[in-house]
Amino acid sequence: MESNRTVVAGTPRETVIVPRKGFNAIPLREIWEFRDLLTTLAQRDIKLRYRQTALGIIWVILQPLIGAGLFSFVFGSVAKLPSEGVPYMVFAYAGLMGWNVFQSTFTKASNSLVGNSGLVSKIYFPRLILPFSCAPAVLLDFLVSFGFLIVLLLAYHIAFTAALLALPLCFAFTLALAMGLGLMAGSLMVSYRDVVQIVPVLTQFLLYLSPIAFAASLVKERAGHVAQLLFPANPLVGIMESFRWSCLGRPVSDWGAVIYSGVFALVALVCGAVAFQRMERRFADVI
Amino acid sequence: MSSSNRVISVRDLVKEYRIAHQGDRPSTLAEAVLARIRQPMGATNRESFRALDEVSFDVQEGEVLGVIGRNGAGKSTLLKVLSRITEPTAGEVRIRGKVASLLEVGTGFHPELTGRENIFLNGSILGMRRREIERQFDAIVDFAEVERFLDTPVKRYSSGMYVRLAFAVAAHLNPEILIIDEVLSVGDAAFQEKCLGKMQGVSREQGRTVLFVSHHEAAVRGLCNRCILLSGGRIAAEGSPSDVYRVYRGDASNVDFSEKGRTMRAQGAVFRNAYWTVDGVPTRELLPSHLATLVLEVDVNTDQSFSVEFLIRDSAGQPVAFVPCGLIYGYTHTLPTGMYRFEIDVDLPIMASGEYSLELISGIPGKVMLDQIEHALRFSVNAPLLGSEGWDFRQDRGQGCLTMNVRDVRSSAQTSARVRA
């Protein structure tokens, strides 16, 4: 029996299982080892989303397009808000592109643990894989809607600028912000299902409190003092500004807001990952 | 051999769960915040429960270790800690080598995905690399016998196909250490046999280390070279399967008739003891086709008319016979409060040899259940070799025989040859 045992090259790695205390390092090496699982889960999400739909991937364009159409009707045609000299449709579409990256990452990441509770309670893997596996689907959506943005720019004869090259950076910071918040919400959701209810309400608030349907400069011109004071605290302000700057070549009204958003996003990501790791050890017992 | 061959070492492993009493545990954020405000130092009226209580053991390379014990003994918790799904409260585990654990068949299977997609999904969930799955793909499909339905979503599979596919993926895992929870109880008998054969291949031919939890005695005996018995979170016995099963039977026949042994709150007609007698002598071994008497001691405290029923289960826990004293035979009892002794004669049929257990139920027929004890009494049937051939009738051939009579056998040429059996 001994002779025909499969001999594994090198000495096998020893795993030590002991109770952990306090701060847990983020297991980057392990996440790398489980990268196949990450891609498989991401593939699953992408495949599943448009299965049994007639329009399939077209929904990725249709959703922001309908949203942008609605915004340009309500805020552009009816309320006659200014749109910084760009057709309202394109103005709203560029904002919604950024918003969709934020919204779908945040929602998916925060639901990823509870939605995969079967995996969490029966299989071992670094739990960060679950929220992280939401990102590829978001990226795919972003690429498709970016393709359509090009079509819109051509159709409305809007010039491309070098700022377009910074779009991947805008995407990355939005992803970081949404992932950080999603990690916090997701790990809280394991113990407290209230968060399931809070997440959609919060995103709805943010949709209207961020300059997506309207220009950020509008707040400076028309809002009261309190609103002017609180508005810049929203990290999405800078994000939306940067998206419009990159896509439409509009000048940024406040670079301070953009830098604030970038720093906020990175801090949120680190805090989210740390909070997640702290709560991770209880997931399988509580979920 | 030397200790360098030790692949798993478990030392003083403790897993504690905190169980809050009903209504105490905050399940909403608001309650949790309120609880913190009321008791800033943390909740005090929580009780802790040790699912594993200082468990220590070693597993050598190539060994197949069976873990047995009653429900709630800590078997699954042990496997969860070893597979790193949940963290221990204290103690230490050292594992050398790649571990794959299979605590459930088909974890992560998605109903909307096709069989092919699910093989890749499930394989990578179980820790297989993509290349490995591609290499094993044909073998998996072959084993599951689903090649015609590979591109059908598994939601359209029959439950048998689903389970076959799920097990097939797991069976082709190639870890150094395999941890398996009760998963052989799925599928039909033929497929179970195939799975068992596969597992034997994995452990014997490939020399892998396997940790195996099962209630299926035949499977444990067939696969394992060593067993540990868990009881109340502690190791109650360790050794060869037959030795450990001997302890287990002794342990299991001392059934707890106290409040703890029940899943429900007993009242009205509460069982206090149960045993078999043959010719007035208590016994735990019965002979088939003989008369045996079940003696029950019942604490009666209800003015309604109640009945007792009992259910016989085989060693795998499957019900094999129901003795419905009240429901079918119509025996109900209206008794003043007090302790009573019931003697119930049962004319045993021909039964397969092996271990059985008896579940006791009392209730008011059609209304309410008063008491229920799942494994109230364990007993064995030692069937003598049957018939002129001396056939050993065991539980894998069914659990009993029907009374029958071959009335007539004649050739199609109408020559009559009457045979009586």
Quick gist of this model?
Chain A has helices spanning 28-33, 35-49, 58-78, 88-115, 117-122, 129-132, 135-155, 167-191, 194-209, 216-222, 225-230, 235-248, 255-280, 283-286, and one strand spanning 14-17. Chain A is mostly helical and 287 residues long.
Short descriptors:
heterodimer, A: 287 residues, mainly alpha, disordered N terminus, B: 421 residues, alpha/beta, Rossmann fold, 2 domains, 6-stranded mixed beta sheet, 5-stranded mixed beta sheet
Tell me what you see in this structure.
The complex is a heterodimer of chains A (287) and B (421). By secondary structure, chain A is mainly alpha-helical. Chain A has one domain (30-286). Helices cover 69% and strands 1% of the residues of chain A. Chain A has 14 helices and one strand; from the N terminus they run βαααααααααααααα. The longest helix of chain A is centred in the middle third of the chain and has 28 residues, at 88-115. The two termini of chain A are 42 Å apart. Chain B has 421 residues and is an alpha/beta fold. Chain B folds into two domains: 3-249, 3-Layer(aba) Sandwich (Rossmann fold); 257-415, abc- transporter (atp binding component) like domain (Coagulation Factor XIII, Chain A, domain 1), CATH 2.70.50. Chain B contains eight helices and 20 strands. In chain B, the strands form five sheets. In chain B, strands 5-6-7-3-8-9 form a six-stranded mixed beta sheet, with helices on both faces. Chain B starts with 5 loop residues before the first strand and ends with a strand. The mean pLDDT of chain B is 81. At the A-B interface, strand 1, helix 2 and helix 5 of A face helix 1, helix 2, strand 4 and helix 3 of B.
